[in-house]
Design a protein that fits this description.
Layout (H helix, E strand, L loop, with lengths): L8 E8 L5 H11 L20 H6 L6 E7 L2 E7 L7 H10 L2 E7 L6 H12 L4 E6 L8 H11 L4 E3 L1 E4 L7 E4 L7 H14 L1 H9 L5 H13 L4 E5 L8 H11 L12 E10 L3 E10 L1 E3 L3 E4 L4 E4 L2 E6 L2 E4 L2 E3 L3 E5 L9 E3 L15 E6 L6 H14 L6 E3 L4 E6 L2 H15 L4 E2 L3 E2 L2 E4 L3 E7 L7 E9 L6 E5 L8 H14 L12 E10 L8 H17 L1 E15 L3 H10 L3 E2 L3 E3 L2 E9 H4 L2 H8 L5 E11 L18 H13 L1
Parallel strand pairs: 1-3, 1-4, 4-5, 5-9, 6-9, 28-29
Antiparallel strand pairs: 2-3, 7-8, 10-11, 10-19, 11-18, 12-17, 13-14, 15-16, 15-18, 20-22, 20-23, 20-24, 21-22, 25-30, 26-27, 27-29, 30-33, 30-34, 31-33, 32-33
Helix pairs in contact: 6-7, 12-13
Length: 659
């Protein structure tokens, strides 16, 4: 697809809960826009945006996929994101580079847990959003109930801009409420909804003067583009019903991608993939400036220059050299060796903040047979961690162990498949274990005087205080640069987060404030790395004095079961240390919402499905870390020598320094 310079552009992310029909909708959008000649299918593995072998086999999207097309003179970059909670990190990265979003809800299943979480992230980032109510022809489809649910759980400002014709199997399509053919009563409902939300419109409405529908639609467009109101349209993606209207609504209600091609380059790498022949593919969203083939670009994050060899548009398995990437557009840039996800190219001025959704809650050890080359396995996982930094691949040299972090069991199945198909490697995974955290029990001090064996001299005193839940680490120094040189203060500040990676029980320490209150160096005896050695000793001394409390990950869950199973589910939740709201009856189904510790509920979805004979749904998302009950014990083997054993720790580090 040849893009025209200076053309109007919109960057749209398609988001949904798993199985709401996201990839099917994307396929029909590409077909209706003339981008593809035949509609692919998720079930038969022919969807353009499911380009990975494992996606075609499993019928689920694992990676965010990019496709570009033109509609009504506007170039649209469309990103189809994974719906499964195990691939939330891909969703998170896509959110950052989208200007607008389509959230797909199923008219049969309604608002599900992940739809809610994505909605909250979209609102946090202020991304204009359109709602597509899919599967209108399904038995049990109830658009009125789903709209009421969406207004309760998502936003009261979701406004249908169409009138649905027929219900369930008799659904035939929808009429635009701004069109002449629209039912006057349904249109009045929309006008009244707008008037309720805008004083100027309300005055016009009650004044009795004839209404200028074009002006009212312009007001709705402005409100939608500002992320204030959220138009809703209907359809059946699998039959192609409502797709052209969805495309029209996207070009009507979505803001155009801004950006000045003449300004200095400002962009972000939001995804990394690999091409067998071309090497590393950096998916770049450019906010300002222009990048051309053979340009030298500054990687601001890594402080290195990179030479662009080629710029391509990539769709499924097809790529096309476009020669340039300009402000507001998205494309794949080749040639930037060592580039990582999240790297800012050029200057950071125009790059928006990110929404943190994905938190890996499980750690898993990777095993392989003696005949398998361990270097190949480690290299493969390091490459995969480039593509998904949250994998956080860790090779423990002394223990000869490889550990990764994951979101859930489906992700492990996908990793297993990718390792075999891409690298020809067969591995197995140990039992996933929950990632706990620690936080200080009370306020106190940590101190070290690292004066032996010479040459060395570093004195540090930290104040350690508990912080609010979810606050992470806050660090500050009260020490004057005349007492401790800035270079040593910087080294100390750099080492504090590292020192907190393993607390008293071996878990990362979080939700605390660390203040450097005293620091001294010696004009002759201080070695440049003395403060790197001293910082962990002072931090661990402090943690040992104040003690730490264990924190465990908590899930927000929504369970839907046949009414006769409701009592057992509530009993199960109590047994798992869960809490829940009073259950809600919907027909013959019971909906139970609550909070559950991940540690007690790892296998619960399987047993729930088993005793309800598959007639249940269990959806969950991460709700934060909370303090464990006193009887919960969870310790992780420490890597390396504990800085509390100062003599052994100094010997081990000094040996490394000499080495």
């Amino acid at each position: 697809m040849v893009q025209q310079q200076g053309m109007e552009r919109i960057n749209v992310g398609i988001f949904a809960h798993v199985d709401a029909g996201k990839t099917t909708t994307t396929e029909h959008i590409l077909y209706e826009s003339g981008r593809i000649k035949a509609v692919g299918s998720v079930d038969s593995g022919t969807a353009l945006t499911d380009s990975m072998e494992v996606e075609r086999q499993r019928g689920i999207s694992v990676r965010a996929a990019l496709a570009s097309f033109e509609w009504r003179g506007v170039q649209v970059n469309l990103v189809d994101t994974p719906g499964h909670v195990d691939f939330l990190s891909e969703v998170e990265r896509s959110l950052r580079v989208m200007d607008c979003a389509v959230l797909i809800l199923s008219a049969a299943e309604g608002v599900q847990a992940q739809s809610e979480m994505i909605w909250n992230a979209l609102r946090k980032l202020g991304i204009p959003t359109l709602v597509f109510l899919n599967k209108m022809d399904r038995t049990g489809a109830d658009p009125e109930a789903v709209l009421a649910q969406a207004r309760t759980y998502l936003s009261g400002d979701i406004l249908p801009v169409q009138q649905a014709l027929g219900q369930e199997q008799s659904y035939t399509g929808a009429v635009d409420l701004w069109a002449e053919a629209a039912d006057p009563a349904a249109r009045t409902e929309l006008l009244e909804a707008l008037a309720e939300r805008d004083e100027a419109l309300l005055e016009t409405y009650i004044s009795g003067t004839p209404l200028d529908l074009t002006a009212w639609k312009e007001q709705l467009k402005a409100g939608a583009a500002a992320g204030k109101w959220f138009p809703l349209v209907y359809g059946v993606a699998a039959k192609g019903l409502g797709i052209t209207q969805l495309l029209d609504a996207m070009t009507d209600y979505f803001p155009r991608a801004g950006g000045n091609p003449q300004l200095p380059v400002s962009g972000i790498v939001y995804s990394i993939q690999r091409d067998k022949t071309m090497g590393r593919m950096a998916f770049v969203r450019l906010y300002q400036g222009t990048v051309r083939n053979r340009d030298t670009v500054m990687n601001y994050t890594q402080d290195v220059q990179g030479k662009v060899t080629q710029i391509r548009k990539v769709e499924g398995g097809r790529t096309e050299d476009v020669g340039a990437l300009e402000a507001g557009d998205i494309a794949v840039v080749y040639g930037l060796s060592g580039v990582k996800i999240g790297d800012v190219l050029g200057v950071p001025d125009a790059v928006p903040q990110e929404a943190k959704l994905a938190v890996p809650l499980l750690t898993v050890r990777v095993h392989w047979d003696a005949a398998v080359d361990e270097h190949k396995v480690i290299g493969a996982f390091q490459e995969l961690a480039d593509e998904d930094p949250l994998l956080d691949t860790q090779w423990l040299q002394d223990e000869r162990e490889l550990h990764i972090k994951v979101m859930g069991p489906i992700q492990l199945e996908i990793l297993d498949s990718v390792l075999e198909s891409r690298y020809g490697l067969k591995v197995t995974f140990g039992q996933p274990s929950v990632i706990y955290r620690e936080t200080p029990s009370r306020a106190g001090e940590g101190y070290v005087a690292y004066l032996m064996p010479k040459p060395c001299w570093a004195i540090l005193r930290f104040r350690i205080e508990p912080g609010l839940p979810g606050s992470g680490l806050r660090y500050e120094s009260l020490v004057r640069s005349s007492d401790l040189l800035p270079q040593y203060q910087n080294e100390t500040a750099r080492r504090v987060p590292e020192a907190l990676m393993q607390g008293l029980y071996g878990w990362e320490v979080t939700d605390l404030k660390v203040t450097l209150t005293e620091g001294q160096h010696h004009v002759w005896h201080t070695h440049p790395l003395d403060f790197a050695v001293a910082t962990p000793m002072a931090i661990m001394d402090g943690l040992n004095r104040v003690g730490t409390k264990l924190l465990e990950p908590i899930l927000q869950v929504r369970i839907v079961v046949p009414e006769e199973n409701g009592g057992r589910v509530m009993n199960d939740l109590v047994q798992m240390r869960g809490t829940f709201e009073p259950p809600v009856l919907q027909g013959e189904r019971m909906i139970i919402e609550g909070r559950l510790p991940l540690a007690t509920s790892l296998d619960y979805p399987v047993s729930l499905s088993s005793y309800t004979k598959g007639r249940s749904t269990f959806t969950s998302f991460f709700a934060g870390y909370e303090e464990c009950p006193p009887d919960v014990r969870a310790e992780r083997t420490r890597r390396g020598v504990n800085p509390l054993d100062q003599a052994r720790y100094i010997l081990s580090v000094r040996k490394a320094l000499q080495g």
